[in-house]
Amino acid sequence: MTLAITPATTTAVPAVVGAELRVPLVTGERVTYANLDHAASAPCLQEVRDAVDELLPWYASVHRGAGFASQVSTRVYEQARDRVRRFVGARASDAVVFTRNTTDSLNLLARSVPRNTAVVLFDSEHHAALLPWRGSNVQRVPAPSSSGAAAAVLDRALAAAPVGPRLVIVTGASNVTGELWPVAELAKVARRHGARIALDAAQLAPHRPVDARELDVDYVAFSGHKIYAPFGAGVLVGRADWLQQAQPYLVGGGATAKVTDHGDRLGVAWSAVPERHEAGSPNVVGVHALASACEILSRHWEQTVAHEQQLLTRLREGLRTVPGFRELSILNDADKVGVVSFTISGFDAGFLAAALSAEYGVGVRDGAFCAHVIVGRLVKKLGSHEERAVRASIGLGTTAEHVDRLVAALRTLVTEGPKWSYTQQDGRWVPENDTRTLPPFLA
Ligand SMILES: Cc1ncc(COP(=O)(O)O)c(C=O)c1O
């Protein structure tokens, strides 16, 4: 049976490293890898790799050396703050604190809010945004079923929040459904109630421009590895005052202006932000990669959005032809970035993911995507007992062939079954007698 899907057209987008990667199948063949897991970690952009290559000969200590290469590395590190500031449309007064990833950034923010801050968030958030807030002042609000209803739900929650500092946390795009949250509207509601608002842009920043001033958000957090710069850096951008008043996130060198010996104790004068929260040797390579990715993405939004939306339509049209396919959705009226989570009735998500990899060279994610609360609820609503789904996610490395291969593979698995035998090991499905060999550098 042929699939009634839109023809493949191509839009030139920045190239990724590993586009030609070939992976083994259990049958002994090798095929080009179909990476449909961009939402977890995106491949490195070729231009990001070039930027890193250009820096490496100059790589030296940051903030610590008098040598010329140290000065170059320090300049690269400090300039990256402005490059990131431009990417998210931050205010000139905003602090740009480099971290390891979004999780680190949101934990830093959670440690920095004044003690009695009332925190309000939807229960559909990723664990990185859901969990760092401690104490009784956290209101977890059930996610609304439409973006139209989100503002009213937040309005009610904030009306019930205690007097004092208030902070709303919201994701820009769901890592489960790809749906875009009405951030600007939610920011207006937050303002009406005197609340600040933090944007978890981990899934938004790779796919859409983010403008903190236009959205009127106070904080933006995202990860390098999700914007095609997988070198271990993330960032928190936002209002400096709470960050400045907070105890340093990590203590050690770099966060200290002066340490004095008082015999029985040490006197420590902590640095101002951003250094206050960046103790230890800075990750200049990661930060340079992240800032470079910001600039590369900024130059290609039109092509990127067109490329991803074409492939998303193709993916959803194709998946709807797979018997038993059901797509997870939180906000039934929202636009989406290229993330589709689904169940297929009668099939375990982990089994499907294992077979897609072993027999078709397709990489997807299965499980609850670090969003157990919402995935559990959505999957149950679809009538499944497993609190698990499959997630296919699209990005700059995705081609129409990858999408078509996933759809055709699922149709074959569902209608004809697997060609190989699988077993469960430690709760994961794996092929029996897996013949695939690791690349030589791991041998
Ligand atoms: C929406 C969202 N927020 C936060 C995170 C955490 O990002 P990281 O793992 O880079 O800290 C993720 C990661 O998947 C995410 O999708």
TrEMBL record:
What this protein catalyses is:
(sulfur carrier)-H + L-cysteine = (sulfur carrier)-SH + L-alanine
Q: Does the keyword Phosphoprotein apply?
A: no
Q: Which residues form a coiled coil?
A: none
Task: Give the UniProt keywords, A-Z.
Answer: Lyase, Pyridoxal phosphate
Name the Gene Ontology molecular function terms of this record.
Answer: cysteine desulfurase activity; lyase activity
Give residue ranges for domain Aminotransferase class V: 35-406
Regarding protein family, the annotation reads: Belongs to the class-V pyridoxal-phosphate-dependent aminotransferase family. Csd subfamily.
Q: Give the protein name, as stated in the record.
A: Selenocysteine lyase/Cysteine desulfurase
